[in-house]
Fold each of these.
Amino acid sequence: YYWIMADFAKIINRLAVVRTYIVDAINDKGGTADESMSFAQLSNQIYAMPTGMEHVRSGYQLFMNNTELTEIPAGLDIERLSTLYKMCYGCTSLTYVGELRTANITDLRWIFYGCSALKQIDGIDTNSITSATEMFHGCTSLVTIHNDLDFSNVVEKIDDTFTSCRALQNVYFAGTINVDIAMNGCPKLTVESLLSLLNALAENVQGLTCKIGSTNLGKLTDEQKAIATDKGWELV
C-alpha cells in the first residue's frame, strides 16, 4: 500500500512540473494560462493560442543565428517583450536596426553579438539595464548608434560591450558611468563621441579605468583628457 502511494506521489509531482512548463510556454507565446487549469483546459488553450509576430512576448534568442534576417520585422512590438537576451545573436546578415522601444527591458545582453553586417542602430534605450555584456561585440561594420546610451544602472564592467567595433564612429552617452569601461576596440570614434564618453564618467572615483586606446588618445588635447583624470579616472 505504502509503495503504491509513493509511486502515485512521484507521478503527481511530475505532472505538476509538466503543468508548470506548459503554463509558462503558453504565456510566453501570447496565450493565457495559469496553474489552476486542468490539462484538458491547457490543451484547449494551446489549440486557441494566437500566432504571428505581434503576439511574441519574449525576445529570448528570438532570431539567434538567423543568417538571412536583414532587418527586425516591423510587426514586432518590442515594448511587449520581457527580455531581448541574445535576440539577434549571430545574425550575420542584419544590416539595419530601427528604433527599439526598450525603456522597460532590463536584459539586453548579447543582443547584437556577432552581427558583423550591422551598420546602423536608430535607437536602443539602455536606461534599465544592469549589465551591458557583449551587446555590440563583433559588430565590425557598425558605424552609428543614433540615440544616447545610458549606462547609469550598469553595475558590471563595460569591458566587452564594444569589442571589435572597429568601424564605430558615432556613439553618445547620457547619464553616469560608474564602472570600468573599455572602448579601445573602436579606433574610429569621433572626438565628439569621445568627449561624450568622458563627460558621462562619474565624478570623484577611485580605481576606475576608461580605456580608449592610443589611437583615440591621440585625438584629444591635454585639456580634454583632463575631463576624465580630474574626476579620478585612469585614462588609457
Amino acid sequence: EQDLWTPEQYQPQEWLRHSDTGELVTWEACQTFSGSWGYHRDEQTWKSPEMLIRMLINTVALGGNLLMNVGPTARGYLDSRAEAALQVYADWMKYNNRSIYGCTMAEPDLLRAVPRDCRFTQSQDGKRLYLHLFAYPFAHLLLQGMAGKVAYAQFLHDASEIRFSEGAVRHFSEGAAKAEDLLVLELPPV
C-alpha cells in the first residue's frame, strides 16, 4: 500500500485520490526550480518567481505538500540562480507563512465561493480561511455563499483591515443567484 503519492514536475488540478477506493491520499508535489533535477550550468528553464509562489499556493490549496528540488554545483554550493529562487520563497513567506504552514484545502462547501484567479487555503482547525489573489481585482471581490461566515478580514502582509459588506448589494447582486449570500470585500487600490 502506498503511503505517500508524489506527482513529479506537474501540478495536480484536484486533491489526489486513490485509484481503487477514491479516497483522498496524502500527497507531495515534487518539483524543481528549473527543468533539471540536478545542477546544470547551462540550464535556461528556471521558473519565474510568480510560478514558484503559485505552485506553493496551488499545492496547499489542494491538500498537498510542496517539495522543491535544487542541485548544488560540483563544489557543493548553490549557484546564484538557485539562491534567487529560494529567496523568492523566503521573501513571500516572511509575510504570508500563516496561509501555508498548518493549512490545507478549504472545506468543500467553501470552495464554491472561490473567485476566478484566486485560491483558498484553510487552517487545519477550520478557524481561518486565507484567500490568495493571483490577479488583484479592481475595487471589489465578490464571494458568493460567504455572507455570515466572515467575522474579520485583513491583509497578511501588513495586518490592515479589509472592509466588507454582506447580503443584497444592489450594484453587485444583479443577476447573482443568491444575493443574500454575497460577501463583498472592498479592496484598496494597488
Amino acid sequence: MAQASRSPGGVDLLVTGGNGQLGRAVLQLARERGLRAVGVDVAEMPLERRDAIVRTVQQHAPRAVVHCGAITNVDGCEAMPVDAYLVNGLATGWIAQAAAAIDAALVYVGTDFVFDGKASAPYAPDAVPNPLSVYGGSKRLGELAVLAHGRDDFWVVRTSWVFGPGGRNFPRAILDRARSGLPLKVVTDQIGRPTMTLDLADALLDVVALRPPGGIYHAANEGECSWHGFAVEVLRAAGVGHVEVGEQTAAELQ
C-alpha cells in the first residue's frame, strides 16, 4: 500500500482523549513546550468509527500521536465487553494504521491491568501479560495492535492508578464520599503506584522528543501504597484526615 504524504501544514502532536484528565495534561504541557498540539475526543473522532479516525489523522497530519482515548471504567468494561474491545482494542489498531500511513510516531497509553497482579515486585516491561478483566484484555489487544507494526517510533507506555485535576478518579471519589458522610471501606491488599497526570504527560512527551527504541515502557510515579493507604493520604492532604477509612480485602469486595 502506498504511504500517504503528510501535509506541510500538519501539527506537531495529535492527542486523542483530549477532554480527559490525561489528555488535557498532555495538551497543556505540549503547548508549554512550544509544540503545535491539537486534542480530539468523541465529538471529533468517535473511536467506534474507523473512517472518522482515518479522516481525523489525515486532516491534522501530525508528526506524532499520543493516544490517551479509551474506556477506562473497569466495571463498565465488564458490563459492556463488546464496546471495550472495540474502543480499547480495535480502534487502537485503526489509529496505529492511520499513523503509520502518514509516517507519524505513536505513543499508546497502556495500563498495569494487563497483568494479573500476583507479582511481589514491580512488573518489568517484558513480563508476560495475563489480564484478568475485560478492561485489561481490551487494552492488551490495543498493545498488540501497536506492536504488530514493529516500528521504532511506536511505543506502548504502561502506567498505573492515574489521577489528576479535573477528572473522575480515585481521590475525587474518596473525597466526595467522605464529604457526603457515607462510610468508607477501602482495599488493603492491592498495591500500586499512584501516578499524577502532569507527571505522566511529561514522560509521554519525553518519549516523543527523545525517541527511544520502539516497544514497551513503564511510567509511574515513585513510591507505592495500597488503595487504603492512598485513601488515607488523600483525606489527610485535603484536611479531612479525621474521617475513618475502614479496611477490607479484595476478596471481600467481590
